Amino acid sequence: MDRMKRLVRRPVRSVSVIRSIYLLILIAALPVLVWNDLVHQLNANLTDVLLWFRGPVHSRTIGEIVLVAIDDTTAARYGPLPLRRAVLAQGISRLASFGPKVLALDILLAESGQPKDDDALVKALASLPTAVLCAARRSDPQASHTWILPLPAFAGSHLIGHVHVEPDSDGNVRSIPLEEVDGGKRFWALGLQAVRAARHDEAPVEKPDSLELGSIHIPARAFSMPAVRPEETLARRLILINYAGPEGAYRRIPFSSLLDNTGRPEDFRGKIVFLGVTAQGSGDRLFTPFSSGIGMSGVEIHANVARTLLDQDFLIPLSEPGEFAALILIGAACVLGIGTLRGIRLFGALGLLGAAIIVSCFVALRLGQIWPLGTLVAGFVACGSVTGLGEYASVATALRKSERKQREYAFRVQAIAHEIKTPLTAIQGSSEIISDRDVPDDQRAQIAGMIFKESKRLTQIIHTFLDVERMATGSLALEKKGLDLALLCEDVLERARLYGARKKIAISADVPHMAVQADGDLLSFAIYNLLTNAVKYSPKGTTVLLTATERASAVHISIADHGYGIAPGEQAKIFERFYRIKRGPSDNEEGTGIGLALVKEIVSQHGGRIEVDSHEGAGSRFTIVLPNQS
Ligand code: ADP
Predict the structure, then answer these.
(1) What is the pTM of this model?
(2) Which of 574, 603, 614 to mutate to test the pocket of ligand 1 (most atoms within 8 A of CB)?
(3) Average pLDDT of the chain?
């Protein structure tokens, strides 16, 4: 029974085991699958989408920042660009008179102009409480100077900040190096310098994992990377820019309003002012996660850096161990799903897991953490598809199994109908005889006894069928025990002889006492079936012989008749379910073609085999060969 049970249950268990093994291999391969450039790019793009959904930030300090824009109007009225130095000096000195806290200038002052105009600009800058000038990295690596710096006359004692930004491979600016070193010179970012000047902070204190700008803790880890020139190493501290929103999130005042005296002092007083070019034709436009179409001016990007620092509204990427742990969790959830859920529930759970990944990334973003949605989605898709495909395969297997079971069930129903027909016919015939008044009493009693026996036999058949069915589903074991074959055959012969009487067929037997290991009911059923077949497929008045012999390793039980015989081409087919041989009118026996299929099933469940030796017109010999385990 155990063996059969195992046989029945093994496919289901093995599918789960194989799927779990696949999943574990997949988890091991996850690092390769999810840490590649494609997935990194996907991470960046999906984070952009989440940022869009998050929308503009609620900032405490956004009002402290003002952009003074050298825009298209300014260019049209006071241009061309770059603005003449005299015009720049005039606007800045006007701005200085309004008392801003800081002026951060995103305009390179690397070349000299008319001495008179340069003097005017130096004076204008000096009249500001604090100014931050900018330095840009030269893009040509062979250039003799690595930085484009303000002329010393302009620089004076003002702070200098770099305006270097490096878009990602898709052209979007998502982060900025707070610290940029090149050619032995190091500069902090313009936005950082502007905040530092506004808060009168000392230079940032450098720690391996952060920068401390006064009371502002900036979570920017230092890392080195190869510079463009191979002899150098670039030290960098990148931070993600937490954009306040799309372009236009900051108050923006045209530079022309300073020149034509329409600017209001209160718009500038005490503010951190970023001055830069925003005119569309200037070329200083870059794409950000919020950009649509024309991009964002460089000066607004620097303002966003300052806003991120002032609000301490940092976006911190999840660490690699954190990412790995999240992936393991996703894989584990899939394994758990496979182990505990089936079908629609499993797919529902996978859907929920996918939704949970997206929601948790969004919640994390609102809390200032950037979780790698692309990596997690890639991990989820990889694990989920293995789970889903595995489930599909097991559903398909289950479907095939249930179809097979349905066919077998139909077969059994027909088999039982067929098998109960024989005793029923006997009961019917006998009751007809018994109802005849001329039947002598002693014969009547004998026939009544036969009816009783046949009805008992009906019950027996039903039990046998139920047992065969239960055995096939693995819920019933063969009840094998040591039996005396002669005693078992005696009982079977008694019934078969009654059955043979209707065709005047005598059944003789030569079965010595020998022990066999078998399920008595099932073996009786098989022998009885072969005996009744021998009667059914033999002409009236012939004989049938039942013999049993014990050979070296097996017991041979043979049923031989002098019947119609079976053509060689049919001999293998008669054991198939529902197969019947179509003979002429001489064979008018009813049947369904199931009996021999059942006999074969019973014999093979005993570990034996059935053989047939038959010659057309001469007769047949069916032999049950059982392994001798006595
Ligand atoms: P059924 O008796 O219901 O037709 P079986 O599976 O018992 O079904 O037998 C299958 C076929 O094998 C029968 O139709 C019959 O033609 C043939 N057959 C079985 N036993 C014998 C036999 N002893 N002699 C000749 N033909 C036989």
Answers:
(1) 0.61
(2) 574
(3) 85
